[in-house]
C-alpha cells in the first residue's frame, strides 16, 4: 500500500526542472524500494522499473542515486520539523505542547510509512554521503522537542534536572519506534488508541 510518498517529495525547488508525473512516480518508487531493500539493495534499474519510467528520468533530475536519496531525506525531514512547529503553535503549556508533538509524529509516520522506515534505516549510518545533512536536520526537528521540554521545565511542570537535548532525542526515538511497531504488528489499531497508550509514557518520563 502506498502512503503519500509522492506527495511528500519536494520537486519544485530541489531540482532545476518542473514537476512531472514521471518524476512523481520515480520518487514514490524510490522511497518504497529503499524502505523495502535498503540503499544497497535498491538499484536505479529497480527504481525505474517499478516507477515505469525511462532510466534517463533519474539522471535528468539527479546526478546519482545518492543525490536522489539525499533529496528525499532532506525534504521529508524538513517537512516533519515544519509539522512539529505547526502542531505546537498556540499550545497553552508544556504538557499540551508535548502531547501535540506525540500526535504530530504519530500522524506523520502513519501517513508516510515507507519514508519513515527509510529514515529509521539510514539515520544512524555513518558511511553515507548525506550523514552531515541528516545531522543538521536531526538538530532542526530535535530543537522543536527541546524547546517544548525547556518550556515545561521553566513552568515547573517537567523535572528541573532534565537533560533537555538527550530527552528530546530519546522521546523522538521512542515515538518513532512505537509507531513503526504499531504499523507492522498492530495495523488494525487506530491512531487514537496508540496515542492514548503512548502519551502517558512520554509525559510521565519528564513530569516533575
Structure notes:
It is a single chain. This protein has 208 residues and is mostly helical. 74% of the residues lie in helices and 0% in strands. It has helices at residues 5-8, 21-41, 44-51, 56-61, 65-88, 94-111, 113-122, 131-154, 164-185, 191-206. Helix 2 runs antiparallel to helix 3. Residues 1-7 and 9-18 have low confidence and may be disordered.
Share of helix, binned: over 70%
In angstroms, what separates the terminal alpha carbons?
Answer: 42 Å
Largest sheet: none
Overall, the morphology is elongated
Structural class: mainly alpha
Low-confidence stretches: 1-7, 9-18
Q: What is the tally of helical segments?
A: 10
What is the succession of H and E elements? Answer: HHHHHHHHHH
**Oligomeric status of the shown chains?**
single chain
Radius of gyration: 18 Å
Q: How large is the share of residues in beta strands? A: under 5%
Determine the mean pLDDT.
87
Q: What's the count of strands?
A: 0
Structure, briefly:
This protein is an all-alpha fold. The protein has 10 helices and no strands.
How is this fold's topology laid out?
Blueprint (H helix, E strand, L loop, with lengths): L4 H4 L12 H21 L2 H8 L4 H6 L3 H24 L5 H18 L1 H10 L8 H24 L9 H22 L5 H16 L2
Helix pairs in contact: 2-3, 2-7, 5-6, 5-8, 6-8, 6-9, 6-10, 8-9, 9-10
